[in-house]
Each structure stands twice: as structure tokens, then as C-alpha cells.
Amino acid sequence: MIRKIVTPKFLFSLIVLIAAIILFNSCSKKIAFQISPVTPAAEGFVKVKQDNNKNYAIDIELTNLAAPDRLQPPYKIYIVWMESNEAPVKNIGQINSSSNWLSGKLKASFETVSPNKPTRIFITGEDDNNTQYPGSTMVLSTPNF
Fold it and tell me: What is the DSSP letter of 65?
């Protein structure tokens, strides 16, 4: 009869594997924006991760987002909005875009923190960054998550 002995090396490997699985499951949620009829070439995603203070870090990465003055009708800025179960729709900030001089590809990013867990993120074209309600031109939106 052959008996297998659990070695410290095996036990350590098992603990590391379990820790990696737990860490992977607690990592951020990555949600892709849906294809937009307003800016069909625009692509991007939102990462949402709860931090140690129980706040939600929101990180947005976008590519091929046209300048807001190229929309029909033209706008001055893009505003990011957040829906949550705890609060009404909220203006959480302005998207700033830049162009890479080598590729000419428009890129944009945005980071913020919210005490409320987001259920949906969307971006609209606006003329005023202090607007309290989203306009009718929704440029990009995530599905509910």
C-alpha cells in the first residue's frame, strides 16, 4: 500500500493557489461600453473596484472617441454620469481626451471615487461641465451591471 505524504512544499503551493483564486475573484469588474450610434468607432471599458475604505474606484479608458465639437449637434465637453441604487443619476466628471502624435488615435481616460456602488456608467455631450442632468445626446453607455 502506497501512502502519499503531504509535503510542506505541496501545502505552500496549495495555499498560494487558493489565495490567487480569492484575489482574482476580488479584483475589479471590467465592463465594456456598448457600440454607439453617435460615435460608432469609439471603444472603451469601465473598471470598478471597491477599495479598503468601502468606496468604489471608477476607471474609464476610451479610444477613437471623436472630439465633442464633431458631434451633431456639436458640444464643448463630454460628461461622465453614474447611476446607482443608492443615489440618483450623478455627474461624476468631465472626460479629457488626447491624441497620440505617432498614431493620431484619440484616447481618453477618467478616474474618480464614489461612495455609492455604480450600476451603470454613461457619457453625454454637454456644453456646461456643471450640468446636473444629462442631455439627450448619449455618446456611450455600459449595460446595467
Answer: P
Q: What digits encode the pLDDT tens for the residues 114-126?
A: 999 999 999 999 9
Q: 129 lies in a domain?
A: yes
Q: Give residue 11's pLDDT.
A: 75
- Is 0.85 surpassed by the pTM of this model? no
Count of domains for the chain: 1
Position 114 in a domain: yes
As beta bridge partners, residue 124 has 79, 138
Give me the amino acid identity at 122.
F
| pLDDT score at 14 | 74
Provide the domain limits for residue 56.
28-141
Nearest to 50 by CA among 114, 125, 145: 114
DSSP H/E element including 22: helix 8-26
Place of cell 471590467: 30
